[in-house]
Amino acid sequence: MRAHLVCLAASLFLLGFPACRQKQASRQSSIRFETRRFEKSLPGCGDQTRRSEPCVSFHVAWPEAIGGAPAEMLARINAAILAALQPLEAPRGFEAEADEWIRDYQRFHAEFPDSGVTYFARRVAEVVFSSAAVITIEIRTDEFHGGAEPESRRAFLNLSPSTGKPVELDQLLEPGARNDLLRLAEWRFRAERHIPQDSTLADAGYTFDQNVFALPRHWGFTSRGLLLHYNAGEVAPAPLGPTTLLAPWNELRGIVSAKAGILPR
Q1: pLDDT band at residue 28 using 50, 70 and 90 as cut-offs
Q2: If you placed Cys at 77, which of 65, 161, 228, 255 could pair as Cys (CB 3.0 to 4.6 Å)?
Q3: What is the maximal distance between C-alpha atoms in the chain?
Q4: Cα(8)–Cα(35) distance, rounded to whole angstroms?
């Protein structure tokens, strides 16, 4: 069993993708990040003579705020990121959670010694957008901890660079523009899922409350616009998979607040 914490010293100044800089907001956050990693594994599975593999692999990578703001604010941002990377029911800290995964695997293997099943967790958080109003951190999770098949999830953490606290989507919209965003998102949802405008969402197999389209819990800004994401199983049976919608910047004018400093020049 081995564990190590790796610090990557390359600072990220939140400049986004170079080819898309012209689409960035006019003023960006001054907060600087470094990438941190935690890894722990339990070796001993696979073909030991040909290709061994870990029985348990637990990997987390995340951005840590290191400068550009008061220490209290940096601490608040870092606490929010770390909290978003662990389930509420998990023991606090990656070391403790990884140890619990290993114990769970060992109990499973003791009951089913001939099983070739291995456990893995990969959680990667990355800053994908920075402006004076919001920093968006995307979190991708791929895990298998027993069950029928691995689980993949995508989420976004949206934080205020001036307070370090979470930002709600409505705070970034023009007054009364939520309905406009709803109409835009439903149009894009139907186009993405090939649902005719004269068909109900329920007829297509979707399970929105009272058959009324709703924005997802998972949203975030990128260099291309606003991403809206529904994970598998959230608004439809899991076999239908996830749905990701992109509302490009040109469609967000009049919806996203011009005063927020998010819209590109």
Answers
A1: confident
A2: 65
A3: 65
A4: 5
Q: Yes or no: say if 125 and 136 are a contact pair by the CB < 8 Å rule.
A: no
Examine the pLDDT at 16 and tell me if it is beyond 80. no
pLDDT at position 48, please? Answer: 62
Q: Which CATH number fits domain 170-260: 3.40.50.2000, 2.60.410.10, 3.30.365.10, 3.90.640.20?
A: 3.90.640.20
Q: What pLDDT, on the 0 to 100 scale, is given for residue 127? A: 97
The CATH architecture one would assign to domain 2-167 is: 2-Layer Sandwich (3.30)
CA distance 247 to 249: 7
Backbone angles phi, psi at 13, to 5 degrees: -95, 15
pLDDT of residue 18: 40
Q: Do residues 32 and 66 touch, judged by C-beta distance below 8 A?
A: yes
Q: Tell me the two tokens of residue 265.
A: 């020049």
Task: Give kind and range of the element (H or E) at residue 139.
Answer: strand 135-144
Residues 117/131, Cβ–Cβ less than 8 Å: no
Considering the chain, tell me which residue range(s) the CATH 3.30.565.40 domain(s) occupy.
2-167
The DSSP letter of residue 91 is P
Question: What is the location of CATH 3.90.640.20 in the chain?
Answer: 170-260
pLDDT reading at 47 higher than 80: no
Residue with tokens 């005719």: 196
212-246, pLDDT tens digit by residue? 999 999 999 999 999 999 999 999 999 999 999 99
CB contact at 8 A, 245 and 188: yes
In angstroms, the CA 210 to CA 217 distance is 17
Strand spans (E) along 1-44: 2-12, 32-42
First-to-final CA distance of the chain? 52
